[in-house]
Amino acid sequence: MEFEVLKRSHIKRGIVIGVVVVFIISAIILNFTRAKYRVSDSVPIINSEINYKVPDLNMVSLYVANEEGVYEEADTIPSSGYTLNIEQSYCGRSNNGEIVKDDTVSIIYENGQVNVLGLTKKGTKCYLYFDIEDETSGEQILENYPTVLTRNDFSTIVKDATTGTIYYADTSKGRTFYFAGNPTDNWVSFAGFYWRIIRVNEDGSVRMIYQGTSANTTGANTQIQESTFSINSNTYKNNAYVGYMYALNAVHGLTTNSGIKRVLDTWYENNLQINYAQYLSKKAGFCGDRQPSTSSSTSNGQGGTGTTPTYYGAYIRLVNSSKNPTFDCQNSSDLYTVASSSQGNKALDYPIGLITADEVAYAGGVWNTANSGYYLYTGRVYWTMSPSNFHTNGTAYVYYVNGNGSLNDDSVPTLINVRPVINLSPDVTITGSGTSTDPYTVVEA
Q1: What does residue 26 show for φ and ψ, rounded to 5 degrees?
Q2: Cα(90)–Cα(81) distance, integer angstroms
Q3: 3-class SS at 83?
Q4: Mean pLDDT score of the chain, rounded to an integer?
């Protein structure tokens, strides 16, 4: 009898355990099913994450323009050579068969990747349209140079024939391409004047220096006039006067125009403002690096005001035995730009300035070393925009290119020639081969 009771008890326990197991399995299946169809997860679209549910995976339609400009459906986001048509692309949801746009969603396309921001509603789908990207003016020019090199030694001059050659340097903004030595194919004809290309800026705009009313390489025709750097001969006994713009007792002041800025602004008004301003970059700037130091060999950030002996950035980079030029502007207050620019101090009246001492070094010029064989040599002296030092003799000095092609400095009240520098917009179309007889020109300019 006792055995039968035990047996029934065992059977009952087995039934209970079986019911519990079935319940657990059912719960797992149910939760899995609910997770599959109801629980939100994240799916990456390139490097953006969008909340989704499994039935809603068809979230993007891609359309890529062909050579004729006709959009064709695609399966892959183009990695390069295209730009997202922001006006035509949109995200939205279907409402009775009609797509209602969601203006709260932002679409960003950079470096071949799409980011979709602010997408929060179920059933939203994005329709992305990609156009073939137009070449920048800089890219059009770069196609003509099969040899692309880089330089590491800036202690010796460069005077070799470098036709068909362009050099590159990487900066904090990307890669810039510049000319060095003696190229015969960096000529531009623009606004009734000849220019020589200094470099293609990181954003595809083209930086160039005034060469004259003809294709002469030397002589008085290669500058617009003489000017002191400061306003008059008395304004030099203070650090402030090394600035293209300046304020007394401020290292990076911007309240007062230098004398040479006034000369350049007047020339711009008379020659470029009315008919040619639309072809110039309003973003690119001109660096007058005023990073101060009381040491002549290393930058310590001290000095730069009053009569404190001071050595500025270009002095430390270019005068010492270890030459180390840079295209970067160390302080945004010293990057002179117009008000509409997205960078720099936005203090300029017009997008015009001067070459920097560092750009002279990249081109092949060296401190106190003659070089008549590179394209910046004109046989004339002319100012750069780069401060050199406030000397112990109580005088402010700025760099200039000497008549023998060397890089030197002089006190700011000295009369020295002026060669304007401007930047062609990346949006213009360029024709020509860059020679003095077939210079690059801006279409319709």
Answers
A1: -65, -40
A2: 21
A3: strand
A4: 87
Q: How far apart are CA 231 and CA 233, in angstroms?
A: 7
Per DSSP, 280 falls in state: B
Handedness of CA 108, 109, 110, 113 (dihedral sign): positive
| Residues 350, 354: Cα–Cα separation, whole Å | 12
Would you say residue 41 has pLDDT above 60? no
d(CA 191, CA 194): 8
The string of pLDDT tens digits covering residues 304-317 is 999 999 999 999 99
pLDDT, tens digit, 9 for 90 and up, residues 229-282: 986 555 578 999 999 999 999 999 999 999 999 999 999 999 999 999 999 999
Interval 402-414: pLDDT, tens: 999 999 999 999 9
Query: 163-184 burial, b for 16+ CB within 10 Å, e for fewer?
Result: eebbbebeeeeeebbbbbbbbe
Cα distances (angstroms) measured from residue 64 to each of 28, 71, 72, 81? 45, 5, 5, 11
86 confidence band (pLDDT: 50, 70, 90): confident
237 residue type, one letter: K
Distance between CA atoms of 86 and 103, rounded to whole angstroms? 12
Q: How far is CA 402 from the centre of its chain?
A: 30
Contact 403, 415 (CB under 8 A): no
Give the pLDDT band of residue 55 (cuts 50, 70, 90): very low
Percent of residues, the chain, with pLDDT higher than 70: 86
Residue appearing with tokens 């008085």: 220
CB 80 within 8 A of CB 109: no
Residues near 396 by beta carbon (within 8 Å), at least 6 away in sequence: 230, 236, 237, 238, 239, 240, 241, 242, 387, 390, 411, 412
CB 130, CB 64: distance < 8 Å: yes
Domain residue ranges of the chain, discontinuous segments joined by +: 41-132, 137-442
Nearest to 396 by CA among 233, 205, 158, 173: 233
Length of the chain: 445
- Span between the terminal Cα atoms of the chain, in Å: 114
Contact of 281 with 426, CB cutoff 8 Å:
yes
Residues 119, 90: Cα–Cα separation, whole Å: 11
* Residue type, position 79, single letter: S
> Quick one: which of 225, 231, 302 has its CA closest to 267?
225
Residue among 369, 393, 406 at smallest CA distance from 384:
406
Q: Which residue has the higher pLDDT, 433 or 104?
A: 433
